[in-house]
Design brief:
By secondary structure, this protein is mostly helical. The chain contains nine helices and no strands.
């Protein structure tokens, strides 16, 4: 998400939280391209023949976000963070449905740094999601950082700002998270 933040997004989110349904209609055009960038970031780790398209992922995530009744929207960062999380869950659900055909196979393990740069791989999305969930129980903020960077495509500076932590703290937690996740991936 390299584009400049649109201050109207936060205002529209606040209005929407306050019950203004018209704000939602105004919000969608402003966030659509950023949601597509996040979706592309998620999908680049998937196999090239993935049946879920970027537009479908954006729309499904948006529909799930609209259904969130208990969220008190505070900022665009919170919104896009939750959107990335929704996309991750959609892709994991999709992988689980397809998983029955893959069971018994032994997909190649990929280094965490390599996977974030890979255009096409035999990445085991379900396993990585399970590991990340486990890591999030140990280190919730660092787990969130991984999600924002790895799935959301945010830079270390953007992720730090989203989490309201210093860049130095984000770099330290990113190093710890990467080491833990790579160790666990190698064990698997």
């Amino acid at each position: 998400m390299t584009s400049a933040p649109n201050p109207n997004i936060t205002q529209l989110l606040l209005e929407w939280s306050g019950g203004n349904e018209a704000a939602l209609a105004s919000l969608f055009p402003l966030i659509y391209e950023e949601l597509r960038v996040i979706a592309q970031s998620h999908l680049r780790r998937e196999r090239s023949s993935h049946t879920l398209q970027r537009t479908a992922l954006v729309h499904e995530a948006f529909l799930r976000l609209v259904d969130q009744k208990s969220v008190n929207w505070q900022s665009r960062a919170q919104f896009f963070g939750l959107a990335s999380q929704m996309m991750r869950r959609i892709l994991v659900d999709h992988a689980r449905r397809r998983g029955a055909a893959k069971r018994g196979s032994n997909p190649a393990r990929v280094d965490l740094d390599e996977a974030s740069d890979a255009a096409e791989s035999d990445w085991d999305f379900e396993e990585f999601d399970r590991l990340l969930q486990r890591f999030e129980t140990l280190e919730p903020r660092a787990g969130r950082l991984v999600e924002l960077r790895f799935f959301g495509g945010l830079s270390i500076d953007e992720a730090a700002a989203t989490l309201d932590i210093s860049v130095a703290t984000a770099k330290r937690e990113w190093s710890i998270a990467r080491a833990w996740l790579q160790r666990e991936l190698q064990r698997g």
